[in-house]
């Protein structure tokens, strides 16, 4: 506060000079206070801006899952316009009917004939072939089968030594046969049932009563049987020219771990790891040397930028977030969003053969230049520091946005990996966490087997059943995935 004596008029020149010096000192103090208040105000404004953006985060403008959206955010989602067409098949739709099963494969045939005489008094000659074949499908009343193995002993009448028969190697050591083990594994990996739900299913449908521990041991037997096919999937995916990678949380008890995925057109490979760091990504990728499609996560930075493609839908969500800001930052975001949509649209027009390859590459190069110029303008912003930092970050990684121009097999999105992880996310919500290392092994293995079988068009249950039979009865698992031909390999 200024000295009260400064308010009194000076009597001499020296007093006037002293008062002036004191006033200048007060002015300096006020300037420092004002500058400090400005800095605090700017910091508070930035905090308010970040809080508002955090409150406005949703699955539309961030990497958050749609299930995390609030009720109001779900209500504000953009909905597709209601179709004016009526429900069901449209006029001109090709009719689809279930094909008739050949008579040789029918379990029972019941034939019906007309009356022997017509109302006019004449005789009726029966056609040699039926005019209508109507087939009714049903399932039998199921019951488990039990095979009892009795071991007899005996005593030598010469030396008196006791002897006992030995179980053949083809007899399983436990109480579950290979078909039952395969069913338990398939109910987990394909239909996401928990151990307790599998227990209830076996009681309701098969009148089989097994403890939770016995069912868990059955999964361990399936893990042992499917180990070689699981490693085959990993080796196959790492040899592909293009692959997708993503990760999601996995819980063992209360500990947070991670489920990693590496996906290609014909196969998907999962791996459970304790961390989300670069070392975990390196273990997932192994000797992979192809093009890798991912989000902007730094864990994959071991892959050179020349072989890595960033997911454009992830970029679009980031641009939607930037476009919602005020001042020049919002303008930059809206421009980037417009360019991103143009990139997607141009790619689709080329894939639909609406434009030729020369036009496609010419338009992409023009969009690339505009994209770079917009990022440079955003990197020079003075007010919106967050947008500035995001643009500077994208400028450093801009080349990874356009890797798809090197090879037409590289997609613009990472949807393949996200769709592969979706069944596990559902399973995680339904079956809770694993409780042991055995569970951490079983989940990625069975997901890899089921997902790969679906991608190449074979029965995942038949594949698991054959593998369990070979492991438990024959002692050697020979079944492998037929990545060259879409049929089930049995040897």
UniProtKB/TrEMBL annotation:
Bias (Low complexity) = 58-72
Q: Composition bias, kind Basic residues: at what positions?
A: 75-88
Q: Which Pfam families match?
A: DDE_Tnp_IS66, DUF6444
Transposase IS66 central domain sequence ranges: 174-439
Task: Outline the segment boundaries, as ranges, of region: Disordered.
Answer: 48-105
Q: Which domain of life is it from?
A: Bacteria
Q: Which residues form the DUF6444 domain?
A: 2-98
- The name this protein carries in UniProt is Transposase IS66 central domain-containing protein
